Amino acid sequence: MPRKKKKKRISKVGLPPGTIIHVGERKVESTGIEYTSYDAQNLSEKSLNSMEHMLSVIDKERITWINITGLHDTVFFEKIKHSFNIHPLVMEDVLNTEQRTKVEIHDDYMFVVLKMITFNRKLLIINKEQVSFILSKNLLLTFQEQPGDLFDPIRVRIRDNKGRIRKSGPDYLLYCLMDVLTDHYFSVLEELGEQVENLEEKIYDNPHSSVVKQLHHLKRQFITLHKAVWPMRELIGAILKEEGNIISKATFPFFKDIADHIIQVMDAVYNYREIVSGLMDLYLSMVSIRMNEVMKVLTIIATIFIPLSFIAGIYGMNFEFMPELKWRWGYFIWWAVTISVTGLMLIFFRKKKWF
Fold it and tell me: What is the pTM of this model?
């Protein structure tokens, strides 16, 4: 199985805290800005090409969702930091794609870091991308490493005015986006579960040595998923402890639903990791059983040849006076005795159920 090589990290040693520097792989050529503004009656969607254009179209009376793709342009993010009064340490974490899943609650905004997980069926690996959220009054900023995400169902709901999303605040929009990411963890789990089932069948049918590499690869994928999901329990807990300044009380039950889903995912990940460990034991047992079968067959063959070798050894001696050597039918009698001994031994082994 292919294993992704880690990219070299840009060194931040010696730099002051809050330095705006991109840590991670550059995945796009230019930064993209998607602007969505709505209320219960109106909707506006635009693709913007500059920071100035974005600031000029923001409607503070409506819910505004600004999705930014591409994290390499440090000058652009310096402007973002100053325009929205974002703490330098928060902006530093936005550009650090190796950041751990977490939540930070500030006086007038909330900062959330999550991992967007997808499954590559061709390479059979989990692709992981960092998504950051900054939630404030009537505004939600999202930051992604590259275009293409799992949020299209939310965009459709906004356009079609389905559900309560257009009637609720940006905190509910944050919930919807987080819920989509959480639901997709289940999809990735199903893909990995299918790989587990395929490996189990392969172990029973043909426990080849390549299974060990596949099991190790699969175990690494579950570890990757575990690292993405486990911190979300702490994250949701911190959000639910928020005093209602940024997240409304009406939205709390929905975040509790995400917490339930996270527990389900964690239970499933734990169970699958145990199954993968069990499959390794099963593989070793199947290999041992096959080896024992081979050794049993070889032992039976060797045992059969013991009396035959004895008989052949006697008549292979160079004594001058051996009466049987002069018999007319001696050669055929020797074959008859040999075949009879072999047959009797096979019957005996069969009755003992040794093969």
Answer: 0.81
